[in-house]
Amino acid sequence: MKRSIGWKFSVVLLIIGFMVSIQYNTVKHPEERDTRDIWAIRQELAEEKKTHSELLKEIRELDKTIASYQSMTEKNTGQALADTVDKLRQQAGETDLQGPGLIIEVKPSPESIAYGMPITSISSDLLNRFVNDLNRFKGHDLEIDGKRYTILSSIRDINGMTAVNGLDVATPPFKIKIVTQTKQDCEKLYNYLLASSIHDDFYLENLIMEISEPQEEVAIRGWPEKFENLYLEELPKGE
After folding, report:
1. Measured distance CA(115)–CA(160) in Å, rounded
2. What are the pLDDT digits (tens) for 42-73?
3. 3-state secondary structure 215-235
4. How far apart (Å, rounded) are the C-alpha atoms in residues 39 and 196?
5. Where are the alpha helices (DSSP H) in 138-215?
6. How far apart are the first and last CA of the chain?
7. Is the C-alpha dihedral spanning 91, 126, 210, 118 positive or negative?
């Protein structure tokens, strides 16, 4: 009888100890909570809504393209395909562009010139940070020191020199050209760049950015390299 009571008492103590250990771990390691304030959450929500709006816009454009193809006859289908190819080449950065935009001149800071500091090439890290900061705004085209920057472009350090598309970027001063879709977009980008903290990053490398006011016409050159077709093959006529 005593053995039975002792065994039951031991089981009860084991259960109590197990529950106490769980409670201790819960208190010691509480679930992580979102400590952001309401403005940070609203900002993230605004970014998500902006992305959603851009996706809907792209879907509408694709729907329009499909509808135009379905309504065409065999005679004008070829012209429609040619127009689509031209549009894709423009989006890929193969064609020259003109439109409202900004011209940014990257120059050595006045202090570095006054103290006789050596002028070196802009670092690839800084140029990448600038492009990433610029990509907060969609729908613009970019030229860095005469080199067209596209989604296929690269910014690398090659033998101590920063290169875009494998071509060296000139030692400052050099120019960066930006073409936007509308003048309103250009003004928004201009105001954003004026207040951006990227200026501090440039200043730490003894460089400054002189940003022109929004201009009606800024011209940038197309990417001279041609895309290689690795997978598609043209069928003989009649197939």
Report:
1. 23
2. 777 877 877 777 778 778 877 777 777 667 66
3. EEEEEECCCCCCCCCCCCCCC
4. 19
5. 183-195, 198-204
6. 95
7. negative
Q: Which pair of structure tokens corresponds to residue 211?
A: 């940003």
Q: How many CA atoms lie within 13 A of 150 on its CB side?
A: 21
Residue 178 makes CB contacts below 8 A (sequence gap 6+) with: 101, 102, 103, 104, 134, 140, 141, 142, 143, 186, 189, 218
Q: What is the pTM of this model?
A: 0.63
The encoded tokens of residue 89 equal 């080449």
For residue 176, CA distances in Å to 82, 127, 147, 202 come to 31, 11, 9, 14
Residues of the chain with pLDDT under 70: 1-37, 69-70, 72-94, 224-239
